[in-house]
Amino acid sequence: QVQLVESGGGSVQSGGSLRLSCVVSGTAMSNNCMVWFRQAPGRDREGIASIQTGAGGIMTYYADSMKGRFTISRSLAERTLYLQMDSLKPEDTAMYYCTLNRSPWNCFERLSSSSQDYWGQGTQVTVSS
User: Fold this and answer.
1) Which letter does DSSP use for residue 27 in this model?
2) Distance of CA 77 to the CA centre of its chain
3) I want to staple 47 with a disulfide (CB 3.0 to 4.6 A). Which of 34, 38, 92, 111 is the partner?
4) How confident is the model over 97-111, as pLDDT tens digits?
5) Would you say residue 54 has pLDDT above 90?
6) DSSP labels for 29-42?
7) What whole-number distance in Å separates Cα of residue 31 and Cα of residue 55?
8) Nearest-CA neighbor of 7 among 25, 19, 24?
9) Which residues contact 87 (CB under 8 A, 6 or more apart)?
10) Interval 56-92: pLDDT, tens
11) Beta strands 123-128 and 10-13, pairing class
């Protein structure tokens, strides 16, 4: 059974940083596409970044609005996906989710798709001004 467990959320002041983690169990960490999303109350879900691992190596993709302050990475040894978030703003307040897709293909397109193979339960990030 595939499970994704996010952690690392919390409350931080504007300008601060957080690193979110997503631990994966029940499936391989390679040859897939993993994505970070967020959703704030009353707003649509937003894709933040995705990371593709496959025969061609590792590729990362970012939504245009997320470039510069967010960095996606993963550790095969720790079976963990990360999202480093810097210079946080109050508008970054949201529930953050990781997803895993068994195929590494179309990983950029996955940023704007609600169709994901597996979802985590989410971790809350609150940024105060």
Assistant:
1) S
2) 18
3) 111
4) 999 999 999 999 999
5) no
6) SSSEEEEEEEE-TT
7) 7
8) 19
9) 15, 17, 69
10) 889 999 999 999 999 999 998 999 999 999 999 999 9
11) parallel
